[in-house]
Amino acid sequence: MSAPNFREMPSRSPNKKPMNNFPKVTLLTRHYRSRGGLEKWANLLAQGFAKRGCPVDILTADAAPTTPLHPLMNIHTLPLTRWGKMKAFDRQCQKWAKSPIIFGIDRTTHQTHLRAGNGVHKTYLEQRKTFENYSPLKEALNPLNKTILHLEKKAFESPLLKTLFTNSHMVKNEILRHYNVSPEKIEVIHNGAHLKEKDFNEWTLKKQKVAEELFLDPAKYHFLFVGSGYQRKGLSFLLKALSLLPNRDFHLSVVGKEREIERFMTCANQLGLSKHVSFFGPRADVTPFYQLADSLVIPSIYDPFANVTVEALSMGLFVVSSKYNGGYEVLQEESGTVIEALQDPDSLKEALMTAMMHPKTWVRSQTIRESVKHLDLSNQVSSIIDLTLERL
């Protein structure tokens, strides 16, 4: 099959032979080489289908990775113009994707199966209006909003779509509220984590060393905030609530990328938290912070399912989450608590006080970890692949 207007990267393995008994899969993802959550899922699903014997074509705007691919995997790079890349990628995918299984990961409209890892943009805009004073005028003036909403509606309501995977019931309900989609089409598969025994079992040995390397006091109660884009992730709410805690024997570590990080550092100082908060910026490996922390706080204004939710639980941390993070669905009484009213500083303060009553101990961390054993990432990926192959 030839594809118009695209450049096919040469195969990394010269002996690729399709297995006739297994359906071909075309996987659509604008970015494949980045480290984001969508890209991680694209790679996991591509590898998973290939290991099941399915030939996999990956359509992307990225160049092929330099590492060897599975023999049944091929990378196809679609050249895009500088402007309108999202729409251009969608148009090129429609020209190329003709296989029995067309699996969408990104903002595309032409697929038989779709994992809506980005959640519902329409809901996100509603949340911004509530929490960020995001006016209808600002929304209208940003052409990207119009593009995403157009692609979102076409994708969810496409007659070609057989199965729509969401990573939380929260997102499923949002789709049903905003779009004309049959509930029977939607399957909820929560996010998962690599349950590495080594990383978890060593936290008792590593905590002191990590604290010394980060110049922190291991005797204090350690809150952890992880996320890029501090405004959407709710760091302002967290800082305000921390300033209200009667017990100041705590420290917050902030990890993640933020263009306006100085603004949040200034906010912490103005709230009298300069000695209680450290900003570490983006880190390739967050494991040391999990090993040090007692709890993770996710006060997001919108997260379909924050990956850090199950990552932290798998490392034995108590989790404080807003109800606008779909990951709260996997919390149990012994493993976390939900912020009832994110805009109310006292509500978040109460949730933080609950967390401080659950410092990380060996027994407690084991119990929390056991609560998400069923969410091992390999299990979640396999569940999606099984359902996809059942619904050809």
UniProtKB/TrEMBL annotation:
Q: Which domain of life is it from?
A: Bacteria
Which residues belong to any copy of the Glycosyltransferase subfamily 4-like N-terminal domain?
Answer: 36-195
Q: Which Pfam families match?
A: Glyco_transf_4, Glycos_transf_1
- The residues covered by the Glycosyl transferase family domain are 211-359
SUPFAM superfamilies to which the protein is assigned, alphabetical = UDP-Glycosyltransferase/glycogen phosphorylase (SSF53756)
- Where does the record place the region Disordered? 1-22
- Under what name is this protein listed? Lipopolysaccharide core biosynthesis protein RfaG
> Which species is the source of this protein?
Candidatus Neptunichlamydia vexilliferae
